[in-house]
Specification:
This protein is mainly alpha-helical. Helix content is 61%, strand content 6%.
Length: 216
Amino acid sequence: MASSAAHPAFPSRSNAFGKLPERPMATFGTSTNQQRGDLQRAERERERIERENREREEQNQLSEEQKEEIKEAFHLFDLDKDLKIDYHELKVAMKALGFDLPKAEILSILQTHGAPSEPPNPNVPHHPRLLLSFRDFQSVMTQRILARDPREEILRAFELFDEGGKGKINLNDLRRVARELGEGLEEEELAAMIEEFDMDSDGAINREEFLEICMQ
């Protein structure tokens, strides 16, 4: 058997291709962190787009009147006109839209959807408050209005007719509402409306009769 010395040695990998560059482990860590950061940013962007699409679909389910009511309530109670509302402004704005919520629930909305106020002067001690933007207010109210029982909406309208909380809408109530709305209805027409829907013949329309009218 021929001696191995008679044959030239196989070239080592470093000799054949040159020495492989050394890559410090810190470089791998930097690359991994960057990839993780890119993935997190992409995930946040995907969530933002999904949220905006969901909010747009929900708002499309509201009537134009409901959208306008949300807008008016926000701007009416945004007392300092900074396009953000605090706890007290949110409470009265929601109440105006028919949602009289307890303090704990209002605070929960602010903690979930709100953002802390910014200090007006960095040199002055500041106690941040949670504030809700118009967009977040619009989203919260849209979800609550869509989840509301339609009977509640009807009964809310009933209360607007029923002056004094009598539990009934009489001819005087219809006359007042017609005048406020600028409807020039004759007395006979108003009386005919009462007579048509007054099932128990007491000269007025009660809650059950009003619900039946509106649910038809």
